[in-house]
Amino acid sequence: MSALLQVHDLALRQGGRLLCADLRFTVQAGQRWLVLGENGSGKSTLLAALAGWLACPGRVELAGRALGDWPARERARQLAWLNQHDDCPFPLSVREKALTGRHPHLGRWDWESAADVALAEAQLARLDLLDLAGRDLATLSGGERRRAGLAASLTQQAALLLLDEPLSQLDLRHQQQALDVLAEEAAAGRALIMVSHDPNHAIGFASHVLLLYGDGRWQAGPVDEVLNEANLSALYRHPVQRGLITGQPCFLPQRGQPCA
Ligand SMILES: Nc1ncnc2c1ncn2[C@@H]1O[C@H](COP(=O)(O)OP(=O)(O)OP(=O)(O)O)[C@@H](O)[C@H]1O
Which residues, by range, are in coiled-coil regions (predicted)? Predict the structure, then answer.
């Protein structure tokens, strides 16, 4: 099976600072990657590079073809990017926001079809947003708006979802709901690369983890190999303890410890 995404020797820099050097990893269809790291370690920069919005040294191949060789519309059918800052400067209903995910699939002068609307509304329903479909995006709470952005990414039906903190601002139930929806997407063959600040989002969800240390170093691999106390303590420069809750591992910061 050929890889959906191949990252070869990618270097991430911002403002003259090297964030990540020689990054190499491969994503197959159905895999769920969680990206972890401190504030400013380069997680959003990585997603921007993988989305083709940031030119970086190295090579990224999407479905066997260099990222830069994809025409923008075709690339957007393959790859959805939920940005961390997903605000909209003009009035837009929640339904219209979800429908933006269909734009790469429409011709220049096409309107969305009934099937497009049905698909968008189905994604809103999965995220508990159908009752708000007619509301202006600007009137939503932060968590509701975040879920509307995720619904738009799902409506795009891309093979690869790049999700920058899709669970931020979501309450506990909606976090779990979103994780369940994303797990369904992965089971249907889509690949996910999701940024989070909670290593526990990996538990029972992620298949792989990418740790970005923000100083050039990184670690990537299956959850069982990469997600452990030692790596997380080094990543966050704070002692992290692994515990068990009803047989499930969980990671917690040690209390009362000075920060490094
Ligand atoms: N245009 C820019 N000029 C200079 N520095 C920048 C620029 N854009 C981003 N940076 C810096 O690059 C670093 C990485 O930013 P990035 O947004 O990728 O971090 P992140 O890991 O996503 O952080 P967070 O967890 O806070 O969202 C940060 O220190 C940021 O201040």
Answer: none
